[in-house]
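Just scan my protein:

——
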Amino acid sequence: MHFEVKSMNFTQIKMIICDMDGTLLDNQKNLPPHFNQIYKELYDRNIIFAISSGRQMGEVRKYFKGNKTIYLMAENGGYIQHNGDTLLADYMNQEDVYKLTNFVNTLKGTAPMLSGKKAMYAFNKDKELISKHTSHFNITYVDTIEDIDDDIFKITVCDPMDPVKNCLEGPLSCIKGFEVKPSGDCWIDINKKGQSKADSVVFLQKTLSISEEETMVFGDSDNDLSMFTHAYYSYAMKNADHFIQSKAGFVTQEDNDHDGVMKTIKKMMEDEDGLLIQI
């Protein structure tokens, strides 16, 4: 579904869903300095705040230690937690994991990483390539796929050359029956079919009885586009490319390095109240 958004009514919002990298986090991978204060304002207004990320749950959770009220959606929607409880854990079939990993291993210049419930895994043969692009990941390196004893949510492919082209017309474009999406500057996520950020948005909407017209989302990348179709108020970041922005109802005035998400929310609350929120 695509919405024609002409005006903003913040009093209508019941849930805000936000991507992390390139959206909520700055380029140094930090939360906005006033995140907790703005979040408290949302909580006091009974507005649900949710994180939607392609990261592992452990990587997502460490940013929100001590906060049990934020809904955490990791693995591109495959793993959802709230208040320490697991609401959804949708793993890939082991046979599919083996086939896809072996296929990626045949491609020159790329490296597969397997995102499991216990850890993120990569192969020792790819350590030099992956270590150049994963400074904020904790990775367990193994020799073979048989060394991994874990349930796998998704396969992430490191492609430093051109992940978008690889998905559209490169070797990964021949993968059928899975969700294959670029994610960031040099990453491609392979999830099982029906496992995407959009599906996690719909899951929360149904679980919490919140409509698309009461939902606001923020994103910056290809894997965020599916969320836009399930939220009446869809925001692309100022730092997103023009194609992503063209698919959103709104574009933030500031980029992710200048608190674009929090400043947007803050201004909408001020416009609603006629008051300034001091941060």
